[in-house]
Amino acid sequence: DTGLIKMDFLGLKTLSIIKEAVHNIKETRGIDIDIDSIDINDPKTYELYCQGNTTGTFQFESAGMQKYLRELQPSTFEDLIAMNALYRPGPMDYIPDFIARKHGRSPITYDIPIMEKYLKDTYGVTVYQEQVMLLSRLLANFTRGQSDSLRKAMGKKLIDKMNELEALFMEGGQSNGHDPKVLTKIWNDWKKFASYAFNKSHATCYSWVAFQTAWLKANYPSEYMAAILTRNRSDINKLTGFMDECKRMHIKVLGPDVNESFMEFGVNSQGDVRFGLAAIKGVGEGVVKAIIEERDANGPYESPYDFVERVPSGAINRRIFENLVNAGAFDSFTEMKREDYFGENAKGEAFSEVLVRYGQAFHNDKLSSAMSLFGDDADMATAGRPPFVPAPEMPMATKLEKERELVGMYLSAHPLDPYYMELNHGTGCTIKEFSDRTPVEGADVKLGGMVVDFQTRQGQRGPFGILKIEDFTGSVEFMLFGQTYIDFHNYGIPGTPILIAGQYQRRFANSDLRFNIMNIQLLENVKGKLVKNITIELDVSKMNKFLMTLIDEKVKGDGNPEGELAFRVFDPSINRTLHMSSARRIHITRGLVEALEEENISY
């Protein structure tokens, strides 16, 4: 009415991820991928969908969708389109019937046989608006315009229009010889369907983009996951989750390295994912570009000396150099450890400062006329290289904190690694699970993590505290009021690993449920005491010498083994399960549970 046109442009980060992955494949393997011409019947991609390994793919990555994919075992692109349309509130109720029909557990029936023409691909279940439009034309002679009016009326719940079209549908259907009772049933089904009818063309386009992401993940997993990590670099929680997915896929995610890293996340020759150099705080794109261009032109850097001699002196200063060191970008030069770059000479100068100054002098001499008079580059490089003094190792906690400060996360290890078993198998609740759960009044909860922040503030009723902790899965804040604050505020020292026990309660009679801390302990004091037994579940065919050797290798440790070992063995030939306890006591270790996961053995 105002003479203006409105356009709705949908910006999909997924398209950037696909583009990034294709670039990674070209960079790593030298292969040009035409993503719009991939095989829509690719077996690897459907295997990925059937296994539900869709984390990081478009549209199909939720836990509920993964569960349904494993049940459905999609075998055609039509299956994916239908799941895309059905997995929403309302039509989701039809998914079990859809799956049962596909696998022959429920009969595929049609109210009128000729309806098979448009419902065959969805196993007799009406899923799309287009199916209703086509069926109205087939059954009741609707025109294209009338069928589109039906679509609009259903989508917008225009009751008067629906009633008008119902009369037209009944009249047209009966003129074609169809039973009025059957036509009434179909129309009533459509009225229920109207609340969730989905546009097939929309579902198809989205499913095609989704298929492209799954195809990349199935065929070029490292390159695709590198693209995912790059596009989620600023969200640490998502980044951590995708790194866990890389681990599940047996893809190593390594820290930055001056000889293997690109600007963003990339893939090395072994198929490992490398952090990008641009991810390091204080290292700008110009610096990274200079490092990579020199490496591409003249080969890998052979040493820290070679690095400062070759990278243009204007690109590197002491702060940038030290950030590269602390982020682990020079760890591949094994002749020096990180601490050595900060060892001081007799003048009190850090070796990093001396090394950067040497690099600048090297470049200046290279540009001067004296260069041609007194020898070539190599002579000057080796003759003037300053020696370093080995320095004592810094505490692991300090090293990790520097990594976190520069890259946003721990790379070499995690401060909570010594408590991995307690946090993942001894509390019954990770921080992510705690954040996602629905509070139940009176429910007891135990979880742990490392204190990362604590603040004391003044309230109307006195001081209160805000305690923030994190584990391997995320972070969470707790409020400490009244006596709870008095009892536990001393645990609020950043870097302290703690175990929290509490209960969902109401602070006042009509207030909302909140988690109230009942007790806090140091994780060190409960180490080795929370995980006391393990039951390994397996098919009888897997009960072999390999499993015995695997357990024997992974349970070794210091001290007396106290863990109880049991087996729950299933024999499919007689459909029986046998529970057996072992008299042997073992160390229940992280190595054991990870080895079982590696072999897809439940525990």
How is this structure best described in words?
The longest helix has 20 residues, at 200-219. Helices cover 45% and strands 14% of the residues. Helix 9 (159-175) packs antiparallel against helix 10 and helix 15 (304-310) packs across helix 17. Strand 4 and strand 5 (462-470) form a beta hairpin. It is globular. The strands form 3 sheets. Strands 6-5-4-7-8 form a 5-stranded antiparallel sheet. Strands 1-3-2 form a 3-stranded mixed sheet. The protein is an alpha+beta fold.
Main β-sheet description:
5 strands, antiparallel
Sequence stretches where pLDDT stays below 50 over 5 or more residues: 378-382
Tally the helices: 26
Percent helix range:
40-55%
From the alpha carbons, calculate the radius of gyration and give it in angstroms: 32 Å
Write the layout of secondary structure elements.
Layout: H1 13-29, H2 43-51, H3 63-72, H4 77-86, H5 95-102, H6 116-119, H7 129-140, H8 144-156, H9 159-175, H10 180-193, H11 200-219, H12 221-231, H13 236-248, E1 253-254, E2 266-267, E3 273-274, H14 285-298, H15 304-310, H16 318-326, H17 351-367, H18 370-374, H19 377-384, H20 396-407, H21 420-426, H22 431-436, E4 444-459, E5 462-470, E6 475-480, H23 482-488, E7 497-506, E8 513-522, H24 523-526, E9 533-539, H25 545-554, E10 563-571, E11 576-586, H26 590-598
Parallel strand pairs: 1-3, 9-10
Antiparallel strand pairs: 2-3, 4-5, 4-7, 5-6, 7-8, 10-11
